[in-house]
Amino acid sequence: xxxxxYGYTLSATRNTxxxxxxxxxxxxxxxILSIQYLALSxxxxxxxxxxxxxxxxxxxxxxxxxxxxxxxxxFTENEMRLYTSYISDYDHPNPIIFIYLIPVKDLSTVIxxxxxxxTWMIISTSANNKSIVKKNEGNNSIEYVDHVNLIFYKSxxxxxxxxxxxxxxxxxxxxxxxxxxxxxx
Length: 185
Known about the structure:
The structure is a single chain. The protein is of the alpha+beta class. The chain folds into two domains: about 1-40; about 45-175, Roll (PH-domain like), CATH 2.30.29. Helices cover about 30% and strands about 35% of the residues. The model has no long low-confidence stretch (mean pLDDT about 85).
């Protein structure tokens, strides 16, 4: 044992009781922090239910012009199923129904575009990854696409709903085992 330049005693042996106490404190703190994180995080089901509700509530339609979109959302273990129904007296008097099978962990971006009377939400997979299955119920055709457009009422712009939807989709990707890449700037 010797005294260093700062007046502290240095020892080659460690006090194992103190080390154990320190390790227990660190483990306790990490345990408490992880419980707090889990308590604040939304579960997979809570996130799915919230997204489903918002998409179905904000779907745009114009009853006066007999024009609109209806959405129905459901989830399986690995994908989001989006049933879309489009009707327009102008060019499609019978509903056109598409079913999108969206692999959740492949989602990369959710953005919003403002249009004249509506707000569009665009859900996309990573660049050049056409992993979304688009089925046309009318002619039974199938194609693979890299994005889905959803048309919403302008009221989606209230209560910070757009940012909340983006945050919910990020959480959805995480709870499905996907990786969320944050924007750097």
